[in-house]
Amino acid sequence: MMSLLLRDMRLAFRVGGGALTGILFFLVVVTIVPFAVGPDLNLLSKIGPAILWIAALLASLLGLDRLFQQDREDGTLDVIIIQSHSLTAIVFIKCLSHWLANGLPLILATPIFGLFMNMEPLAIAAVLATLIVGTPAITFIGAVGAAATVSLPRGGLLLAVLILPLVIPVLIFGVSATYGAIQDPAPFTSPFLILCALTLFFSVLGPITAGWMLAQSTD
Amino acid sequence: MKLVIENLNGERSGQPIFSSLNFSLEEGQALVVTGSNGSGKSTLLRVIAGLLNASDGSVLLIDSGQDEGVSPPHEYMHYLGHQNALKLALSVEENLNFWQEFCGIPLIGISEALVKVGLPGIEHLPAAYLSAGQKRRVSIAKLLVSYKPIWVVDEPTSALDKASEVLFAKLIEEHLSSGGMVIAATHQSLGIDSDNNEQIKTLNLDKNRLSSKEQLVD
Description:
The structure holds two protein chains of two kinds.
Chain A: H1 2-13, H2 21-37, H3 41-61, H4 66-73, H5 76-83, H6 87-108, H7 110-116, H8 121-148, H9 156-182, H10 189-216
Helix pairs in contact in A: 1-6, 2-3, 2-6, 3-8, 3-9, 6-8, 6-10, 7-8, 8-9, 8-10, 9-10
Chain B: E1 2-12, E2 15-26, E3 30-34, H1 41-48, E4 56-62, E5 69-70, E6 77-80, H2 92-103, H3 110-116, H4 132-145, E7 150-154, H5 162-177, E8 181-185, E9 200-204, H6 205-210
Parallel strand pairs in B: 3-8, 3-9, 6-7, 7-8
Antiparallel strand pairs in B: 1-2, 1-4, 4-5
Helix pairs in contact in B: 2-4, 3-4
């Protein structure tokens, strides 16, 4: 299992791995927003957390469609299915390595992008915390979509359409926890805990569902 | 160890491909599956390897001294399909290292396995630099670096030159003589003298089409 994690991480940073395209996409989205809304610093710092969350959500969708497809195309998936006790564990490991290679660099870059949006240090810290807790849920939900579209060529858009309704709760609680941290009457703890619960819930349900789907896709 | 196939039926999208196959393989025996294109060689191999569900029948691996089958049997198999399962962005050594760790039960070292398939000294090259035949040979080396008693190989010698075919036949004979089993689908000869060797069984799926209810092998 450890070998699979290391191999996937290594692949993500090699040619065509696409670990850093997420950050570039994140950068593009965050930098064009100030051009679109104009030089209103107050407005920017107000909508900043929401923009960062939307950008992070869209950036983490990138590359999710290749989560299993690449392995299926070169025959690796067949061998992995044959050799493993539990596809659920395989999917979990693949999600973990995808998150470590694509999600984590994105989150670590958030403080810099927060400055672009004229955000307070507290707001940046809140976005950082909610993203760390919330983005794994996006990966686990995405794994289900990736498994469902594994045999479809160009299934990327279909994947996004399939999973976006499911990740909306993650977005809602992520953003509301962030606003809870910076605006006084709104609570921080309860949306943050619900966000944690969503991630834990999908970290179980996602791999089980995706593993079952992969087992059906070996025609 | 004994592999027993009982009354195996396979289908694709509801279309029956083969039916009522019965055979068994003992240690040191090989089965060569032949047949024309589309006769169901790959489907049979994928059913045996557990990648496709059989519509009826069973694949059992019986350990010596026990009555019940080991489950699931596919964990005792190496499967070499049409694709090579190599990551082109990784070096040959990284690829083989991964498969050795992932499959468990290391048998021989990476460089030793590469010598056996006739590719010494290419550990450091990215797999993308290799020719089609060389990639195939690296994926054959994958079977050597960790031990599984049963090799399920689908058209193993496609893209191989004559010399490599002979090399592969020798590897199969070595595996058989060490008590392994081989199930190979092929439309070329494997290079093993199957007529004079009792340990090599053949199964022609074209005949299965014509007379489906007969027992063909064994």
